[in-house]
Design goal:
The chain is of the alpha+beta class. It is about 65% helix and about 15% strand. The strands form two sheets. It has a seven-stranded antiparallel beta sheet, with helices on one face. Strands 2-5 form a two-stranded antiparallel ribbon. Helix 3 packs antiparallel against helix 5 and helix 4 (about 175-190) crosses helix 5 (about 195-270).
């Protein structure tokens, strides 16, 4: 007991340093994971289309490359798209004076505001502008992960569906019983039959039908068991769908804040001369 106490005392003296190292390790791991996630979009172009008069934005989106992703605000006056060089988006039916159209490229920002076009290649401005989209990128990554899970569940459901359609049960050899029933029926057909004899034949056929019914019931139970598995997978799909919807709502909320911050940032760039007219 005394030795344990001494050991515990020495261990406790090392706890602050160990805790600091652990926090540093976790922090570095988190930063590394985040950096890896964001580096995936390092060469993407972010496009923001919004209306300063708070009208609805109608956007035409085209994605012909590897990926193209878009989000809108809940009131539809802001639209944000992200993608490679083959992903394009354009505003439709938006008055020029009410339009903010911004393309945030890896090393340059071109934008139209108040009916005038500007651009800037200032590294600080570009970096600050691109950082605004990090929360949306996090949501997109989560949605992508959920989508992968949904596809995996869909494949499992497809496999279960195939199993359900192909359910088989072992059928005992009843050929002798069928032959006997057939022979009895032929005999009665040739000789005539009393009510008692017809009752015996009916009982014989009824027994065969009952045995076949039992086999059908066994197959039905197996299909039902697979159906229960299908139902559980369906519940999981539904939960993933709810999570997707929740992330979508977060994206809609973020879109407004991103557009507002970007608008203010670009206004300041115009005032400071960092952004030049085109």
């Amino acid at each position: 007991m005394i030795m344990r106490s001494k050991t515990s005392s020495r261990f406790r003296s090392l706890l602050p340093a160990a805790s600091a190292l652990l926090v540093l390790f976790i922090g570095c791991a988190f930063v590394a994971a985040s950096a890896q996630s964001l580096s995936k979009y390092a060469n993407d172009t972010f496009t923001v289309i919004s209306r300063t008069d708070h009208g609805i934005v109608h956007v035409h989106l085209r994605g012909q490359g590897d990926h193209c992703w878009a989000s809108t605000s809940d009131d539809r006056n802001v639209a944000i798209s992200m993608g490679d060089d083959l992903c394009t988006s354009s505003a439709q039916d938006v008055p020029d004076q009410a339009l903010m159209f911004v393309r945030v490229m890896p090393a340059r920002i071109s934008f139209r505001m108040n009916g005038k076009s500007y651009s800037t290649s200032d590294p600080g401005t570009v970096k600050a502008a691109r950082s605004l989209f990090n929360p949306l990128l996090s949501i997109e990554a989560q949605q992508s992960e959920l989508g992968a899970k949904q596809r995996a569940l869909g494949e499992q459901q497809g496999e279960l569906g195939s199993k359900q359609r192909e359910v088989k049960v072992k059928v005992p050899d009843m050929s002798a019983d069928f032959q006997k029933a057939e022979a009895d029926a032929k005999r009665l057909s040739a000789q005539g039959a009393t009510q008692s004899q017809l009752g015996d034949l009916q009982s014989e056929l009824g027994d065969l039908q009952s045995r076949i019914g039992d086999l059908q019931s066994t197959a039905g139970h197996e299909q039902s068991r697979i159906g229960d598995q299908q139902s559980k997978l369906g519940d999981q799909q539904s939960k993933l769908g709810d999570q997707q919807s929740a992330l979508g709502r977060q994206g809609e909320t973020l879109a407004v804040g991103i557009a507002d911050k970007l608008h203010h940032m670009l206004q300041q760039a115009i005032i400071s001369g960092t952004a030049k007219p085109e």
